[in-house]
Amino acid sequence: MTASTQGAIAATVRGVPDEGQRPLDPQRLGDHVDRLYRAALALCGNRHDAEDLVQETYARILARPRFLRHDDDLSYLLRVLRNTFLNRLRTQSRRLAPLELDDERDGLPRTSDPRHPEAALEVSELLGAIADLPDDQRDAVVAIDIVGLSYREAARALRAKEATITTRLHRGRARLAKTLSATLGEPVRDHTPHR
Amino acid sequence: MTAHRTPSQDPLPDDAESAAIGARIQQLALEVEAPASLRMRLADDGQRTTGRRRFTLPALGGLGLAALAAVVLVLVGVGGGSSAPSVDDAVALALAPPTAPAPAVDPADMHLVRARIGGITFPNYTYAWPKWTTMGARRDRISGRDATTVIYRGPRGDVGYTIVDGKPLDPPSGARRVRAGGVDLSVLRRDGATIVTWQRDGHTCVLAGRGAGVERQLVRFASWA
């Protein structure tokens, strides 16, 4: 461990920012709940686990002061969310506990727009399909299309080169398009209520 | 916070097809909002953290406990209204059209369908009344609280069953009190609709329909649910 790394850790433990660092603003965390929840749904594939994942992510972040050097808040939050997700997967695989997937109960997103009675099903299918992508493609699609990061921010959050992220994103989108041709291939429709 | 994705930031031009797929994914994703139940859980966590004083003023730099309290307020406030929902709000949802397909029957318990909120699972009325079928569902948020509705169709028309998550709603005015099957029910009429409401496991349940003579069936449903 280098002296600068030791210094950074010590500074973080003391709650004092190192040079070039800025504190994560806890007042802004609430701004990102929707985006992180969408990302969690796309990672987990069901609402129950997604809620738990977001809650655990926030708990980890709020457990001690956080100081960021290069990341913007959302990139940092996404990285913590993804790491928390991977930790949970490892723990679950050790326990041999299968993930619950209950589409009828958990995959029902809220929508208050009666013009789109099929929207709930479309979103549910999309998030389920993203969760089924290979991990690297899934992470790229989640970072850019679900959370809304730029390529540069996504590359930083996922610790990969921008070109690599671009390739993974293209492949992930192509696979999703193939899986969900009916959902992704049509523009938003003006559905008529059933009754 | 830096600005988020703009085309000029992209290192390589997307081909049109990939960009179109991405735009559609982004469009669909925007329809998903974090549920009120999650916001409440986060707010509770923030309050517990404050209570244990795990954050100290020096540890948060210049932000301190006031900032943490602000987090709690933001987490509770984002996306939610300030006033409590009413039974009338729940009735409006019960009488609204479905926005999602009918939930399937729970294979583990044929008395139930696979839709639930606040620990309560919706009934499969077809099990006891074969002429009534589950025909749709919807999930909404009213005044910052989740509400799930299952819609049934039968000889008396369509009937919506809405449960609002969280604390019980204020009882409606002008209702008759009825006791059926050991359950205390409130029965009322609003704008041509018949409404039966009761409390179960600390939540307000609402059944509503517009069909002629539907009241008796609603009371049966409520006492069976």
Q: Kindly, what is the distance between the CA atoms of the first and last residues of chain A, rounded to a whole number of angstroms?
A: 67 Å
Mean pLDDT of chain B: 77
- Report the structural category of chain B: alpha+beta
What class, by secondary structure content of chain A? mainly alpha
Range of strand content of chain B: 25-35%
Number of helices of chain B: 5
**What can be said about the biggest beta sheet of chain B?**
7 strands, antiparallel
How many strand elements of chain B?
9
Q: Choose one word for the global shape of chain A.
A: globular
What is the average per-residue confidence, as pLDDT of chain A, rounded to a whole number? 72
Give start-end ranges of low-pLDDT stretches of chain A: 1-14, 95-117, 186-195
Count of helix runs of chain A: 10
How much is the radius of gyration of chain B in Å?
Answer: 22 Å
How do the helices and strands line up, and which of them pair or pack?
The complex is a heterodimer of chains A (195) and B (225).
Chain A: H1 3-14, E1 22-23, H2 33-44, H3 47-62, E2 67-68, H4 73-95, H5 103-106, H6 119-131, H7 135-146, H8 151-158, H9 162-179, H10 181-184
Antiparallel strand pairs in A: 1-2
Helix pairs in contact in A: 2-3, 2-4, 2-6, 2-7, 3-4, 4-8, 7-8, 7-9, 8-9
Chain B: H1 16-29, H2 36-52, H3 64-77, H4 87-94, E1 112-117, E2 120-123, E3 133-142, E4 145-154, E5 157-164, E6 176-180, E7 183-190, E8 193-200, E9 203-209, H5 215-224
Antiparallel strand pairs in B: 1-2, 3-4, 4-5, 5-9, 6-7, 7-8, 8-9
Keywords:
heterodimer; A: 195 residues; mainly alpha; 10 helices; 2 strands; B: 225 residues; alpha+beta; two-stranded antiparallel sheet; 9 strands
